[in-house]
Amino acid sequence: MTQGHTTSPTSPTPRRTPSYRTLWFVLFGGWLFAYADRAITGPVVTWMIDNDIDFMGAAQNPHALGGLIGSLFFAGYMLTQLPSGRLGDRYGHATLLSVCFVWAGLATIVSGLITGLITFVALRVITGLGEGAFYSNDRALIVAHTPARLRSLGLGVAITGLAFGLTVANIFAAPLLNFGVSMLGKDDAWRMPFLVFGGLTLAFSVVMWWFMRRLAGPIRPGPPLRNLMAVSAVFCVLIMALFWLCDSVGLPEWASATMQVVLAACIVLVMRRRGSLGAAVSLKDRDTTLIYVAAIAILWSIWLFGYWSVAIVSSAAHSSLTTAGLIAAFNAGAGIIGFPVGGWLSDKASRYRMGRRNYLIVATVVQGVLVLLFGIYLQFTEMPSLWVMGVLMFCTGLFLNAVQPMSQALTADLVGPEERGSAFGMWNLIAEVGALASPVFSGVVRDATGSWSAAIYLDAALVIGSALLYFGVRRSGPVADGATTATGAA
């Protein structure tokens, strides 16, 4: 669907809808604010550890606890992927997108107002539950409104906001914390980034709501919001119960993260047995399942560097938080090029023999090799150069960000239009296992070894393993709209 006219059922006056390119850039803004909200937690936690602030100062394994806090956000974010995609298929993807940004802005602001570890964790989980409605509906809306020949490019342009969000969080964390020290005092300075970014997200939700009304007509949030709140309440109780149980019996942080992954797997299996998943997007489909599982490595890499990159650079080079944030921004900023270029290459590849799948394999292998080189450089260099780390992180991020729109476009090729919200929900639900596990397991490895190299080697192994999974994708698409593209899997 492209730019055109629609007619209101109560009036013959035609209503001009925004173009698909305008949609890309509005959703670009959505990705920017959504990722800034979640990425700000990593630099804030690092600052709290370095300054022995509040609940982080008393932790026996602070990096593991900090990673667990990030992982619990993704537990909430992950569990609402599939339900929110199904709600979008039922009530409209534009409606779900309008709701989730009001939710995310309010929850981020409240995260900066509360006191205590348990309530802070609960608010990050609630934020994740609300933001979980964004991904599957954003992807489905772009595919629905974009010509098939530009599908992957549109997915890539919109998600470039992710890179901007990570970059903004890394660059502005330190200045906001310093501002917080002057305004709130050292003990409460950590609140300032949440208050600022939450306020900006809430302001952007007004823009999102206005645009979605122009695109899809009146927004009626009542029924989908009630359904999303009901699902989120159940998931929040389950996640916090697991966190409380692990904390009460003294289980290590990695055990808590593992239990969250098991919880997600149980939910998928229950929905499958109840017939809640469409046949083409469920775990019964071999090709899409391989893509979903391979995507775990994409999110693992994004959140190894998205959450801990400031700590990796400051620890290796013994630099200040401000300097480390600027160097870490090289990795996040690479998405500004990687996402749209990856999408553009994927669209071109779909028209030639090599196909989307094979481009995806090549980009993934190159990414894995670069991650491996970064780990080797950190391990065997006594005083790593900030500039060399910046270059390696930029090159790694370039290919990491290119593979995501390739994988998503390949998924869209293999499912029908009526199931795309659910398909993207399933893609991100399974992929978010990487986002959930990466911060905490990487933090545990860092605490155990005293270095970030082992955590980086683990990431490299997962990335190479995901490339091998893509070789198993054999079916050619698309099945949806009769386009002539192919995956190139033959």
From TrEMBL:
Q: Which GO terms describe its cellular component?
A: plasma membrane
Output the PROSITE patterns linked to this UniProt entry. MFS
Which residues are listed as membrane-spanning?
62-79, 155-177, 189-212, 224-245, 251-270, 290-312, 324-346, 358-380, 386-403, 424-445, 451-471
Query: What does the record say about its membrane topology?
Result: Multi-pass membrane protein
Q: Which SUPFAM superfamilies match?
A: MFS general substrate transporter
Q: What terms describe the molecular function in GO for this protein? A: transmembrane transporter activity
What InterPro entries does the entry give?
MFS (IPR011701), MFS_dom (IPR020846), MFS_Na/Anion_cotransporter (IPR050382), MFS_trans_sf (IPR036259)
Query: Where is it chiefly localized?
Result: membrane
Q: Which residues form the Major facilitator superfamily (MFS) profile domain?
A: 22-477
Report the Pfam families cross-referenced here.
Answer: MFS_1 (PF07690)
The protein's name is Sugar phosphate permease
Which source organism does the UniProt entry give?
Pseudonocardia ammonioxydans
